[in-house]
Amino acid sequence: MKEIIVLAEHRRGELRDVTWEMLSKGRQLAENMGAEIGVALLGKGVGPLAEALKAKANRVFLIEDERLEFYNPETYEKVLSPLITERKPFLTLIGHTAMGMDFAPGLAAHLKMPLATDCIGIDAEGETLSLIRQLYGGKVNAAILFAKKGPYMLTIRSGAFPVLEKPLFQGEILALPSPLTEEGLTRRFLQYMEAAVGEVDITQADILVAVGRGIKEAENLSLVKELAEALGGVLACSRPVVDKKWLPKGCQVGTSGKTVRPKVYIAIGISGAFQHTAGMKGSGTIIAINKDPKAPIFSVAHYGIVADLFKIVPVLKDKVKELKQK
User: Fold this and answer.
1) What is the pLDDT of residues 63-105, one digit of tens each?
2) Does residue 42 register a pLDDT over 60?
3) DSSP characters for 187-248?
4) CATH number of the domain at 202-325, please?
5) Where are the domains of the chain?
């Protein structure tokens, strides 16, 4: 039977969101193709993660080794190469993250396997895959096909696919021996350094209140921040606000910022250029406030308010506070 293998990405004892997203999309593809889905989990002391993953896959390939405690492109390639060679999956899915971008090209080259990176859409018809990738900084969505038949390898953009709630598997955990030898490595892990972010990671927020150049001045940000606090949400922004240094880079949503999928996304004074909408169009409910009725943001919004933000935002804030007091 055909098989799809997802590489589980984890950091400091926690599975990253892209893992669950790939598993949801992988399962959808597997069901359409009559295939099974497996997860490759590499690490040290990651048994609890395997227990969580087996509910989302037919099987978990658990490979533990002290040298896998921290990510290293050399060890990952040496472990995954024999696994993929033996299992011969039709499709291997890897997150298009700093880790995935680092080692996936080398792994694909070693296995002589076609690779498509940064995919935001996947459809399968028989053994033919149709992929969606963005070109020219997100201006164009290109549908692409592989020039030859599989097996294939893809890297998947974080936030590109929703996490679907489906009946759980009663998957099995297959503990496999590590193929690593005593051969020396040219790279070694030194230390983990957390990237500088804002007060809150916007990719984890359920409610985001984003502001754009329509706010006009840095002093006016407090107006939107008060609305975010009243809603129990987090403040985000479009690129112009970061360029003016009114908010840190960690708050930016878009192709040059972060991809987010909150339950509610409120875009205030944001025109909706494609670079921005590419990073937030997967949100559960999108509400846009802009005085320009032709602003592109309204094409992706579920609800729109055509009005001056300086008149609307204070009213919304007061109404939210009023409702909370009831």
Assistant:
1) 999 999 999 999 999 999 999 999 999 999 999 998 999 999 9
2) yes
3) -------PPP--SS-GGG-SEEEEE-GGG-SGGGHHHHHHHHHHHT-EEEE-HHHHHTTSS-
4) 3.40.50.1220
5) 3-176, 202-325
